[in-house]
Amino acid sequence: MLYRSRLNRFAVWARPLQAAVMIVKNGGMVATVWAESIPYWATASNVVILSLERDDQVWLLLLNRASYLHGYMYTTFSGFLVFEN
Predict the structure, then answer these.
(1) 7: burial class by Cβ within 10 Å (0-12, 13-18, 19+)?
(2) What is the pTM (predicted TM-score) of this model?
(3) Statement: residue 78 has pLDDT above 80
(4) Higher model confidence: residue 62 or residue 13?
(5) Residues 12, 69: contact at Cβ < 8 Å?
């Protein structure tokens, strides 16, 4: 099955801060999303197309080296089925 997943409206605020989120499939990195607030706000998004089988898992992981994520109620992670085998 082919899925489209998107991390949307990811932001950092104030001071020069960084935020990075990794999109993970079954424990392996698929993609990262990086934002750096120079001088004030920054946003970032990413879209991935994933081939998924039954019991596969996909999640987001906030990276410790850049953990200043803002927009907790505005940041979304979503996906939908593109094609079924």
Answers:
(1) buried
(2) 0.75
(3) yes
(4) 62
(5) yes
